[in-house]
Amino acid sequence: MALSNDDSPVYIRLRGTISAAILRGEYRAGDQLPSVRALAAEHGANPLTVAKAYQSFQDDGYVEVRRGVGMFVLPGAAEKLRVAERDRFVTQQWPRIAEYIDLLGLDAADLLERERA
Question: What is the DSSP letter of 70?
């Protein structure tokens, strides 16, 4: 599960992948994130693009850089990230999803029941 779509810029897709990993607990407070080069190689991305994604996490206060050591998840990052992602979902994604559900004549309650089955 990534928290972005395929037509997003690469750094946004990488950010979504990292966000999902933090929210799933793959990276917890105090854990070191993969190096820029390692993540770039893993995803076939330019290291500058990965650095941009990481910089956005640092700007938002989810991670800290320890010079010469790496990037580490800050305490409370998962909770702050979950709040931010919920807000983004409710304000940006849900209206489009709800419109599409309506356009297709689907019933949201039926969809939820189908998911639980």
Answer: E
